[in-house]
Write a structure and sequence with these properties.
Strand content: 25-35%
Helix content: 25-40%
Number of helices: 11
Low-confidence stretches: none
Shape: globular
Structural class: alpha/beta
Strand order of the largest sheet: 6-7-8-3-9-10
CATH architecture of the largest domain: 3-Layer(aba) Sandwich
Mean pLDDT: 92
Number of strands: 14
Number of domains: 2
Radius of gyration: 21 Å
CATH superfamily of the largest domain: P-loop containing nucleotide triphosphate hydrolases
Order of helices and strands: EEEHEEHEHHHEHEHEEHEHEEEHH
Distance between the termini: 26 Å
């Protein structure tokens, strides 16, 4: 018997002729922090809505299980999932205290004392009505809910929108600290890749409704390089690697490459690591998809 937190097999979701999710299969282990990456329209939100039982897959086109059980109309499983959406849909006249009072009852694992500490940490005034909150305050409310729920599966969709640098750093520190003491499965969907990638144990990249790759974050980052210098030396250093892009500056050449092996600098060729965000941008480039397939990076 497997022990997956999430198991998806052959998932498809269409809107008319558009395939938002195209025959996707994916397994996520429990008690890890995952980064869900993809461009706008790549299928991330559709995937999250299906995982949380808010959308149905096409009839007969997908098997979705959370903690070993089907998620659809399964109250016991839904109580174990906290989904903090990019935009909350609360009544504008409700006070923050009223919203928290309602959502507390949704999660058997809710930690009231932790909630109080988080309200102070994220500087949230519970007396304010939801319509009075700034975009950053709305995000702060989502952080309180997601963390205080202590849900076995916690999903944050763009949790940092509108937050200033201080509150964002507090969130990043807090989620690591709380995860260490209270392990759970966390999915963070974000465009601030370089700012939060230190949180991720694994990354899941989706593109055009398909799973591009699922990889250990540290390992993936160790495979992206910039090579620069004399063209002959750079080409030689890049042998065996997949060239993602290239740029010329006068008589020098710079290559962005993906390599399963570490590339050491040589005479005439300097080597620098590539950021995860830059590597992500390169990997989703349709112009190099065939090279990625040949290189075994994607299917």
């Amino acid at each position: 018997m497997n022990n997956y937190a999430i198991e998806i097999k052959g998932l498809t979701k269409t809107y008319g002729s558009h395939k938002a999710i195209d025959n996707m299969s994916l397994s996520l282990e429990p008690n890890k922090i995952y980064g869900l990456l993809g461009r706008n329209g790549a299928g991330k939100t559709t995937l999250l809505n299906i995982l949380t039982g808010r959308l149905f897959a096409d009839a007969g086109k997908g098997n979705v299980k959370v903690f070993g059980s089907p998620v659809y109309e399964n109250v016991d499983i839904l109580k174990q999932i906290c989904y903090v959406e990019e935009k909350g849909f609360y009544s504008g006249v409700l006070k923050v205290s009223d919203i928290l009072s309602v959502v507390r009852g949704l999660y058997p694992t809710w930690d009231m004392e932790y909630e109080k500490r988080l309200l102070l940490l994220f500087e949230l005034d519970t007396r304010k009505q939801y319509r009075q909150l700034s975009r950053g305050m709305e995000s702060s409310l989502g952080l309180v809910i997601g963390l205080a729920s202590r849900a076995p599966l916690t999903i944050f969709d763009e949790p940092s929108l509108g937050l200033d640098a201080v509150i964002r750093e507090r969130f990043y520190s807090e989620i690591i600290e709380d995860f260490t003491e209270n392990p759970r499965t966390v999915i963070i969907s974000t465009h601030l890749i370089d700012e939060v990638n230190s949180l991720f144990e694994e990354v899941v990249i989706v593109n055009d409704g398909k799973l591009l790759l699922k990889a250990d974050c540290a390992e993936l980052k160790s495979k992206g390089f910039y090579l620069s210098g004399r063209e002959e030396a750079v080409r030689k250093a890049a042998e065996g690697a997949v060239v993602l892009s290239e740029e010329r500056f006068g008589g020098s050449l710079t290559l962005s490459v993906y390599s399963e092996k570490e590339i050491a600098p040589t005479e005439g060729a300097e080597v620098q690591p590539m950021s995860l965000q830059k590597l992500f941008v390169e990997l989703i480039n349709p112009m190099i998809h065939e090279q990625l397939v040949k290189g075994g990076i994607v299917k």
